[in-house]
Automatic annotation (TrEMBL):
This is ZNF93 protein. SUPFAM superfamilies: beta-beta-alpha zinc fingers (SSF57667). InterPro entries: Znf_C2H2_sf (IPR036236), Znf_C2H2_type (IPR013087). Pfam families: zf-C2H2. GO terms for cellular component: nucleus. One of its GO terms (molecular function) is DNA-binding transcription factor activity, RNA polymerase II-specific. The gene is Znf93. PROSITE patterns: ZINC_FINGER_C2H2_1, ZINC_FINGER_C2H2_2. The keyword Transmembrane helix does not apply. Residues 1-26, 27-54 form the C2H2-type domain. It is found in: Nucleus.
Length: 54
């Protein structure tokens, strides 16, 4: 990484790491507008909208 010197094993890992420096949050919840860096974090978040409330 040119920002911090972190070494990554492959290009995709480097791209994921570099997104930490850009503060980019491309994964947006359509229910509430919250945004996340990773689609996996968005998927975990989406569970709160799927829970049936009494």
């Amino acid at each position: 990484c040119i920002e911090c010197g972190q070494r990554c094993s492959d290009h995709s890992s480097l791209v994921m790491h570099q997104s930490l420096h850009t503060k980019e949050r491309p994964c947006i919840c359509v229910e509430c507008g919250d945004s996340f860096r990773w689609s996996s974090a968005l998927n975990v978040h989406l569970r709160i909208h799927r829970v049936k409330r009494p």
